[in-house]
Specification:
With 456 residues, the protein is α+β, with helices and mostly antiparallel strands. The chain contains eleven helices and 18 strands. A hairpin with an 8-residue loop joins strand 10 and strand 11.
């Protein structure tokens, strides 16, 4: 049962695992890709101590030798707990040329092959009955073993050829589970999961690049409860609020995971999330760079030169996969990336409220799809670029509500020569009802509208 639950959040967990793995423009020569691994880095303790890494905040971008998750579990003592630890292990890829005597020497490149630090994903499950954890903590040691593989290569026109070598060092971790009872009107327990880097050798003098070879990267945990239900730390019931405040989370934060409404899973990540996170259905695949919008990043990737794309493909197979996907992206897929608004439920009927059935009252006039309005953006608290549109006439393409039930008008400018193209892509400008003035209705422009588009 627990394993099935874990699979239901794998897509989100994989996005966390590879977030920041390789950043646009996906070339190893880019400055952004010379300092690697941004989140959930657990280094050897000796290295962390030598560099003063003693932060105990929740931010997962702060490096440390340990992280801690504390969450609340509503359950009887016979509940069963399973914790899955996931992380990346550095795999150093080097390129070697074969000498005439049969030995090898490191080179900067061999045909399309170049050195780079890749990563190998790992996951380990540990489990214990809740009753055992209440009696005392349980410690579990896990190891991602060292390894080495050789791949012979022979670049065209170069006699003798060479090889690509991939090497990994042992990465050790210790997972400690414990639990304690909370003062609550229902059976409530504070469950603690502590993950430590278990490397014992002295690495204080190592460089960061070397220390990372013994580190857990993008470390995060998933916790499942059989015969128990987790309590949201973001939106707890009133009776559990005091217990929520007593939870101490360090370099990770737990949220409810899995399908909306279920409480049998927790995902604790070095990136802050909402309860029940999920990948947007419009997303065609990972881009590893959440500081960018998918649409913008895809468009920028399309503009890379042939030489830049060759370097990116040689940098890492995951970069090559991104380029292949973006280069072959159909127009309708790119159009869906532009964005949309998802309401938490169907719009009310017209008599139930201003946003009902795609209609809103503005100065006593019903404004709906196809209505003409004059834009009057607020002088403060709005996008500065919208101020340049003051007084322009526009056509309402949709009346929408966001996740906070606020009403928005999606409009296209009447004098914009690109309005027809923008309408086809679903690219509109958005204004609140109090930022428009109704105008006499005109004919509705041809083309698909945005009523039924839905992107968060």
């Amino acid at each position: 049962m627990a394993a099935t639950g874990f699979e239901s959040v794998r897509a989100v967990a994989d996005a966390i695992l590879y977030e920041g793995y390789l950043l646009y423009p996906y070339r190893r020569s880019s400055g952004k890709n010379r300092v690697r691994w941004q989140f959930g880095v657990l280094t050897p303790r000796s290295w962390a101590d030598a560099h003063g890494l003693d932060d105990t905040g929740v931010a997962g971008s702060a490096e440390s030798w340990w992280q801690q998750t504390e969450c609340l579990l509503e359950a009887s003592d016979d509940a069963a707990i399973t914790c899955r630890l996931r992380f990346l292990q550095v795999q150093r890829r080097t390129v070697e040329r074969r000498r005439p005597d049969g030995t090898f020497e490191d080179v900067a490149a061999l045909g399309p092959h170049v050195p780079f630090d890749e990563a190998v994903p790992h996951e380990f499950d540990v489990a214990a009955p809740l009753a055992d954890l209440l009696a005392g903590e349980r410690r579990f040691a896990v190891r991602a073993p060292a390894g080495e593989e050789h791949e012979d290569v022979a670049p065209p026109g170069r006699p003798g050829g060479g090889r690509v070598v991939r090497r990994r060092l042992d990465v050790d971790a210790v997972v400690t589970l414990s639990a304690s009872r909370c003062d609550a009107p229902f059976p409530l327990h504070r469950l603690r999961v502590r993950v430590e880097n278990g490397h014992t050798a002295d690495r204080a003098a190592a460089s960061r690049d070397e220390a990372l070879r013994w580190s857990l990267l993008a470390a995060h945990t998933m916790i499942a409860a059989v015969d128990g239900a987790f309590v949201s730390l973001l939106d707890p019931p009133q009776w559990a609020e005091h217990a929520t405040r007593e939870c101490a989370n360090v370099h990770a934060f737990p949220v409810l995971a899995g399908p909306e409404g279920e409480r049998g899973l927790v995902l604790s990540a070095p990136i802050l999330l909402y309860d029940h996170p999920r990948i947007a259905p419009e997303s065609p695949g990972d881009l590893h760079d959440a500081t960018e919008i998918d649409e913008i990043l895809s468009l920028r990737t399309m503009t890379l030169t042939d030489a830049e794309k060759r370097e990116a493909r040689a940098t890492d197979p995951r970069a090559a996969e991104i380029l292949d996907r973006v280069d072959g992206m159909p127009h309708e897929v790119l159009g869906r990336l532009h964005g949309a608004v998802r309401s938490r439920g169907p719009l009310p009927k017209p008599q139930d409220g201003p946003a009902g059935s795609g209609t809103v009252l503005v100065d006593g006039v019903a404004v709906t799809r196809g209505s003409r309005v004059r834009l009057r953006p607020r002088p403060h608290g709005t996008d500065p670029q919208d101020r340049f549109l003051d007084g322009r006439a526009a056509t309402v393409e949709a009346v929408l509500t966001d996740v906070d039930d606020a009403c928005h008008l999606a409009v296209s400018l009447e004098d914009d020569p690109a309005s027809e193209l923008n309408r086809w892509y679903g690219r509109f400008r958005y204004f609140a009802p109090d930022e428009v003035e109704p105008l006499p209705d005109g004919p509705l422009p041809d083309g698909p509208l945005a009523d039924e588009r839905s992107v968060r």
